[in-house]
Design brief:
Strand order of the largest sheet of chain A: 3-5-4
Number of domains of chain A: 2
Helix content of chain B: 55-70%
Strand content of chain A: 5-15%
Radius of gyration of chain A: 22 Å
Radius of gyration of chain B: 23 Å
Largest sheet of chain A: 3 strands, antiparallel
Structural class of chain A: mainly alpha
Shape of chain A: extended
Shape of chain B: globular
GO molecular function (chain B): P-type potassium transmembrane transporter activity; potassium ion binding
Largest interface: A-B, 104 and 124 residues
Oligomer: heterodimer
Subunit structure (chain B): The system is composed of three essential subunits: KdpA, KdpB and KdpC.
Number of strands of chain A: 5
Mean pLDDT of chain A: 96
Low-confidence stretches of chain A: none
Structural class of chain B: mainly alpha
Distance between the termini of chain A: 73 Å
Number of strands of chain B: 4
Helix content of chain A: 40-55%
Pfam family, one (chain B): KdpA
Main location (chain B): membrane
Distance between the termini of chain B: 29 Å
Mean pLDDT of chain B: 96
Order of helices and strands of chain B: HHHHHHHEEHHHHHHHEEHHHHHH
Organism (chain B): Cypionkella aquatica
């Protein structure tokens, strides 16, 4: 029994230093030197001010912006979570019915919360459904917006890997450039 | 389901398949003491560690000594991790100023990371300092995985050796698994993840002012270094509450593919290592085939169920084209979510990129069942292999009963002692899972933690104890598990699922190692062909599955029927 005590304690201490201190710090050093943009959260700045991250979704409420998906945590990027409601949950179905608001054939991502509560993307169909509202608020033609959405729709790599998607923050940034809110 | 979706699944599985032989053979070399190309760098570290710790690497341990060493190492790990979590407020690298964890949560979390479960009763970004994540949790992500690999290698040697007393040396196996397998892979995967967008910094995060003038605080930290080993070691404990669904843990379709590759590759390569060490790679492939068959069937059911969607939502006016999208991320889509769901539960990983609790009833049945089948498809690193060996022993025993011969596996006679120990091991799961679920289902203090009523509530309980006992760590996360009742009982379930399983397995290995290895004769049942694979699949399904069928019928199965009938809760 006691013969195992020394290796247990010594190896635990040695590995804590190697794996818990040296390894993450070395990776941090390399990351900050080689990939500073990604390593610091892919921040987006506008006029020198940080307005968000390329990867993290945000809430948009005004009619003149494209809206992100519903979020179980209202896009709190310091406390991610999904709704964790099961498929038969009355609470879930009431929420969805409220968001559908009498429309038909609503794209599913427009009325469902994401797993993280921070999904930065919407589906192209969801973006297309919002064009009429945004166009009216911004006083631009729907065709102009349709082109903007198409330009900001990312397609699967090699037509295979990934899903067609629209980054909402990037789209809204581009929107601000072509029309006043 | 779409063709493109299946092609994406095929691409990931093909990348795993292409890695198996090189990695499997490399690991065989590492654990038979051979020289590897990493020796010039790592050998001095390895021998330095042995000298410091007073370990004689040439000294063999019998099963008893091997098990005691493993338990002592785990006990030391528990004590240090518990202390780090309790004392977090007084330790460095705590930019958000988080308080120490309360005793029940620290107990639960320490057991969780020690047993390779990574059940998380806390939200990472709202509870853990960078120091706790790096020097506490991530260290045990490595060491618990290395412990699993070590035990698998001891079990492998029981078949490779003839008339032997020793199973190897725990300290050597654990050290080599960490230094030569997990650490180099983690460095490569961590750097790739950073390139793909995963942050790696000691800062707490940053504040942003949105285009609409709102404030958003965005949490960060040393994420990539932890994410790499979390996947490679089939740990699954995320830096963030949302785990691999969080865009900072898993920013894109490519990082998602890398994450799935990383969590599968070591566990799937270990049967090749096993085959090589017992002198027949074909045997390794036979075991792997049984694992792959059940896993791919699981992927198919989840993909089908989720794209079929939730008729209750369609009735409200939701376009059914995207399937059930509650709790899923756009960038992964249905196929890569389905693959992740099945792989993370076929493995004992437990990382999630979609919320399992929001899956359709049958989509949620699959991860639950894959855990209950014993976490062998292909299971956690190491634990999947030794779990599969237990099933293989039972399979040849069943075959032996049918033809009236003493069963043999790889030239070792399987007798009463081995069968008793194997059955003792496989009984742990149903006892712990069904026992604790039954008690919780009658306890008001436990029921008040449920977020969903009806059969989904029972599934939340059943999933929690399955995940804990199977050392998986994923959840139907509607359950508010951070209560003294759940922290304590789930902690006990995790401990039993790991240690009460491993000790009979090591005892069985000790007894097998001592037997002479007989040459195959014409009467030997070949264990590397289709008949054996079929038998193995059957034993896993019958032994692992039927025990849980009544409970599953009251949970996801009845929920599916009620969904079709339009009933809500």
């Amino acid at each position: 029994m006691l013969t195992h005590l020394r290796p247990a304690v010594v190896l635990l201490a040695a590995f804590t230093l190697l794996l818990g201190v040296a390894y993450p710090l070395a990776i941090t050093g390399v990351a900050q030197a080689a990939f500073p943009d990604q390593a610091n959260g892919s921040q987006i700045a506008l006029d020198g001010k940080v307005i968000g991250s390329d990867l993290i979704g945000q809430s948009f409420a005004s009619p003149g912006y494209f809206h992100s998906r519903p979020s179980a945590v209202d896009y709190n990027a310091a406390g991610s979570s999904g709704s964790n409601l099961g498929p038969l949950s009355q609470q879930l179905l009431d929420r969805v019915a409220g968001d559908v608001a009498g429309r038909v054939a609503v794209p599913a991502d427009a009325v469902t919360t994401s797993a993280s509560g921070l999904d930065p993307h919407i589906s192209p169909a969801n973006a297309a459904e919002q064009i009429a509202r945004v166009a009216a608020a911004r006083k631009v033609t729907p065709d102009q917006l349709a082109k903007l959405v198409a330009d900001h729709t990312e397609q699967p790599m090699f037509g295979l890997i990934g899903e067609p998607r629209v980054n909402v923050l990037r789209l809204n940034l581009a929107l601000d450039k072509i029309a006043v809110n | 389901m779409t063709l493109i979706g299946w092609l994406q699944i095929a691409v990931v599985l093909a990348l795993v398949l292409a890695s198996l032989v090189p990695l499997g053979r490399y690991m065989a070399q590492v654990f038979t003491g051979g020289r590897t190309w990493l020796h010039p760098v790592l050998r001095p570290v390895e021998t330095g560690f042995y000298r410091l710790a007073g370990v004689d690497p040439a000294r063999e341990q019998g099963w008893h000594s091997y098990a005691v060493a493993m338990l002592m190492f785990s006990a030391a790990g528990f004590a240090s991790l518990y202390a780090i979590l309790r004392l977090q407020a007084y330790l460095p690298l705590n930019p958000q100023g988080f308080a120490g964890l309360p005793p029940d949560l620290a107990f639960n979390t320490a057991i969780s990371f020690l047993t390779n479960t990574n059940w998380q009763a806390y939200g990472g970004e709202t509870t853990m300092s960078h120091f706790s994540q790096m020097a506490g949790l991530a260290v045990h992500n490595f060491l618990s995985a290395a412990t699993g690999i070590a035990i698998a290698m001891a079990v492998t040697r029981a078949f490779a050796r003839s008339g032997a007393q020793g199973l190897g040396n725990f300290w050597v196996d654990m050290t080599r698994a960490t230094l030569y397998v997990l650490l180099p892979l983690s460095v490569v995967v961590a750097l790739l993840l950073i390139w793909l967008g995963v942050p790696q910094t000691l800062a707490a995060g940053f504040d942003a002012t949105t285009l609409e003038g709102a404030q958003q605080t965005i949490s960060m930290g040393p994420i990539a270094s932890q994410e790499a080993i979390k996947q490679l070691g089939t740990n699954g404990g995320g830096f963030f509450n949302a785990n691999s669904a969080h865009p900072f843990e898993n920013p894109s379709a490519l990082s998602n593919m890398l994450a799935i590759w990383a969590m599968l590759v070591v566990s799937a390569a270990l049967p090749i290592t096993f085959g090589r060490m017992v002198g027949s790679e074909r045997q390794g492939w036979a075991i792997l085939s049984a694992m792959a068959f059940l896993l791919i069937a699981g992927v198919g059911v989840v993909y089908w169920a989720e794209t079929s969607g939730n008729p209750l939502m369609a009735a409200l006016g939701v376009d059914p084209a995207m399937g059930n999208f509650e709790g899923k991320e756009i960038r992964f889509g249905q196929s890569m979510s389905a693959l992740f769901v099945a792989v993370t539960t076929g493995l004992s990983c437990g990382a999630v990129n979609a919320m399992h609790g929001s899956l359709t009833p049958l989509g949620g049945l699959v991860p639950l069942l894959l855990i209950q089948l014993g976490e062998v498809l292909p299971g956690g690193v190491g634990s999947g292999l030794y779990g599969m060996v237990v099933f293989a022993v039972l399979a040849v025993f069943v075959a032996g009963l049918m033809v009236g011969r003493t069963p043999e596996f790889l030239g070792k006679k399987i007798e009463a002692r081995e069968i008793k120990l194997a059955v003792l091991a496989v009984l742990i799961l149903p006892m712990v899972i069904l026992g604790f679920t039954a008690v919780s289902a009658m306890l008001p203090a436990a029921l008040s933690s449920l977020a969903n009523a009806g059969p989904h509530g029972l599934s939340e309980l059943l999933y929690a104890y399955s995940s804990a006992a199977g050392n998986n760590g994923s959840a139907f996360a509607g359950l508010s598990a951070n209560t003294p009742w759940f922290n304590t009982t789930l902690g006990i379930a995790m401990g039993l699922g790991r240690f009460a399983y491993v000790i009979p397995v090591l005892a069985m290995a000790g007894s097998l190692a001592a037997k002479p290895r007989a040459a195959a004769s014409v009467g030997t049942f070949p264990t590397d062909g289709g008949l054996f694979i079929g038998l193995l699949v059957g034993v896993i399904l019958i032994l692992g599955g039927l025990q849980f069928f009544p409970a599953l019928a009251l949970g996801p199965v009845v929920e599916h029927v009620l969904m079709l009938a339009g009933k809500t809760f």
